[in-house]
Amino acid sequence: MSRTHFTVLQWLSLSTLLLQIFPLSHGDVGTAAQYGPPYTPTACYGSDPTQFPSSNLFAAAGDGIWDNGAACGRQYLVKCISATTPYTCVPDQTIQIRIVDFAPTLASQPSFGGTTMVLTETALAIIANSSAPSINIEFQQDYEDLSWYDERRGVPYLMVSRRNEAAKKEGEKVVSALV
Ligand SMILES: *[C@@H]1O[C@H](CO)[C@@H](O)[C@H](O)[C@H]1NC(C)=O
């Protein structure tokens, strides 16, 4: 077996191992509204056009998660769990969004006030009926994966995304390498 294939196998088993160490936690429960253009200026990055993911999957943070602006740039996994009207949620659909703005100071009017976050119309339409003014969501912060290959030891390392808050506060906890 070539070295490359062996490495791929190592990665696969490492991922499996990590999922057991850090089972995907259930997120927090909140609400989401939607908004359309104009999207600028934003409270996070002003009029910089490069702040928006080309997927249009971004959102504004409500008071509850704004964290004095620390929420800017954070990524969340968001899922629709229910709404006032039955069958509003698209089942088994999760989106990853990036926070670029503060809901109370949006340049355009959100479909509903006081929600945990305000999703772009594009983002909301993926997880729910696009005519819903607000939905109930489950959300959790998503962290970047960091991975690298230690040439000297010859082993791959992976810092897991979706780490729990405890692991994050301890500092960047590196989970064991595969041998
Ligand atoms: C979306 O919701 C609207 C209003 O409740 C309803 O009329 C429409 O049929 C729904 N669309 C789908 C695809 O379920």
UniProtKB/TrEMBL annotation:
**Looking at the record's lineage, which domain of life comes first?**
Eukaryota
Q: Which PROSITE patterns match?
A: EXPANSIN_EG45
Q: Which residues form the Expansin-like EG45 domain?
A: 30-141
Q: Which parts form a coiled-coil structure per UniProt?
A: none
Residues making up the signal peptide according to the UniProt record: 1-27
Q: Which UniProt keywords apply?
A: Signal
- Name the InterPro entries on file: Expansin/allergen_DPBB_dom (IPR007112), RlpA-like_DPBB (IPR009009), RlpA-like_sf (IPR036908)
Q: What is this protein called?
A: Expansin-like EG45 domain-containing protein
